[in-house]
Amino acid sequence: MYESLVEITGLEIFAAFVSAAMPVAFLVPFVIIAVYLERKVSAHMQDRLGPMRVGYHGLLQTIADFFKLIQKEDIVAEGIDKKFFNFAPFLVFAGSYAVYAALPFSSKYIGSETDLGIFYIIAISGLVVAGILMAGWTSNNKYSLYGAMRSAAQIISYEIPTALVILSIIMWTGTMSLATMSEMQTAYFWNWNILGGPEWGITKFVLIPFLLVAFIILYVSTLAEVNRTPFDMPEAESELVAGYHTEYSGMKFAMFFLAEYGNMFAVSAIVSVIFFGGYQSPFGYLGNTLGIEWLVPFEQVFWFAAKGIFFVFVQMWLRWTLPRVRVDQLMTICWKYLIPYSFVNLLVIGIITLL
Amino acid sequence: MRQYLKNTWEGIWTIIIGMKITFKHLFVPSVTIQYPDQKVPLPERVRNRLYVNMDDCIGCDQCARACPVNCIDIETVKSTPGENLGQTSNGKKKALWVTKFDIDIAKCCYCQLCVFPCPTDCIYMTDVYEFSEFKRNELIYNFSTMQPGEVEEKKDNFEKFQAEKEAQKAAAAKAKAEAAAKAKAEKEKDEKSKNNNSKSSSNDVS
């Protein structure tokens, strides 16, 4: 997309700006829909109705909330380290938005066609930890500090199984670029990585159980990385008020919110790219059968968003199913269960790949 | 090792069971009642806001005396014999102008004790329960149907009537005294019969 824009307009700055701003055009409507979806899903899972007043079945509720957040006073309490306090939400949002640079929305659009896609994502999402720690520490509030500490401990621990699982997939597929990884799983859904990848043979069927385990590990650990229930220790409402964003109000709080939902979609997208074919359609493209070339990228965006939103829905589903884990349980899950399993998985997938 | 694998399996399996339950509940019709649009039907004998039907009230003050929190405040003025206050629906003749019938519903404890003593069944509980106000003195309900001017008039009337009565009484007493004096004077002449007559006549006047 960047290259074609440079060709059309001849302005590199313009092309760079447009292709960098594209995910925002996706992210903001996504967040508005996802917040509404979250409230509706939670409500219906508890036999309630959720928002019903603003618009038809509360469809405009999130937009009303957004306007409310804009109008709110931006409170900065005394005793706060103002410089870092004001900087933290932007850092958190930057960290979660930077992930979108390496996500292939379709075969025609990817923010940065770097070969290190998944490596870059793992590295850059560490920035979120710094932002959260900054927010919690500068708030000068015990709850916030606890939340930030827990968040840092949690995110850093869960990076390990994530990285190990991704490593095993990288070993097997032989690429770090998410665009290439999606391209490999083209055509039909039996070519998806979760079903053993595009190559037919005995290894495809041998690999399936191990890939299933890898998928579960990756999904659980990314869930923990975005601080969602049952791993929402950093913002455990009943213990820590709101965790690291207790002291924030107005738009700065909205930034944290945006970052959280952005992260949710980002990890869902990563899971879908690695295991479920990314932007590839499961049944082939309408554009190809009708002979309309330009329809294909839009279909791909649709499939990418649909898969992402499906996994976001599963995250919500898990959130309203499971209670919050304790801190020691959290660490047990990570160090005693996920990491050994992912090591074994890495070993087995490595051996199968070698053979 | 076996325990370890069992734990893992149990963890995954119980999560799947839990997710199955929550997924089922996605399609269970919700139990929410959209309150202001849709209300729960109230039971038959609910006790909510009090209402007084002033057409039937005879101002007997029994409800106010029955009230355990003294939230009913009644003032009455007696009617003069010439005035016709009408009848209550169960055929009782009204004799009092009810100049003030205030119920402080903020104090009311909804015990319904005021309802039973009412001889004309004019005070009763309604099923209205949405009557919150921003100011507390807006919760004092004035049930009296009389205008302030009217109240004054009735009070004046009664006072005038009272004064007239007093005057009459005084006149009667005077007459009585005079009669007594006369009788005393005439006692010597005609003793018993005259005295009795004057007594009975003074009784008639009063």
Structure notes:
Chain A is mainly α and 355 residues long. Chain A is 68% helix and 0% strand. Chain A folds into two domains: 71 residues, no CATH class; 279 residues, no CATH class. In chain A, α4 runs parallel beside α11. The two termini of chain A are 39 Å apart. Chain B has 206 residues and is α+β, with helices and mostly antiparallel strands. Chain B folds into three domains: 31 residues; 97 residues, Alpha-Beta Plaits (2-Layer Sandwich), CATH 3.30.70.3270; 51 residues. In chain B, 41% of the residues lie in helices and 12% in strands. In chain B, strands 2-3-5 form a three-stranded antiparallel sheet. Chain B has a two-stranded antiparallel ribbon with strand order 1-4.
- Radius of gyration of chain A (CA) equals 21 Å
Q: What is the general shape of chain B?
A: rod-shaped
Characterize the largest beta sheet of chain B: strand count, sense, and whether it forms a barrel.
3 strands, antiparallel
**What is the spatial order of strands in the main beta sheet of chain B?**
2-3-5
**N- to C-terminal distance of chain B:** 113 Å
Q: What helical percentage do the residues of chain B reach? A: 40-55%
CATH class category name of the largest domain in chain B: Alpha Beta
- As an assembly, this protein is heterodimer
Number of domains of chain B: 3
Shape of chain A: globular
Distance between the termini of chain A: 39 Å
Looking at the structure, the CATH topology of the largest domain in chain B is: Alpha-Beta Plaits
Q: Class by helix and strand content of chain B?
A: alpha+beta
Uncertain runs of chain A: none
Which CATH architecture of the largest domain in chain B is right? 2-Layer Sandwich
Strand pairing plus helix content of chain A: what structural class? mainly alpha
Whole-number count of domains of chain A: 2
Low-confidence runs of chain B:
none
The biggest chain-chain interface is: A-B, 17 and 19 residues
Radius of gyration of chain B: 35 Å
Number of helices of chain A: 14
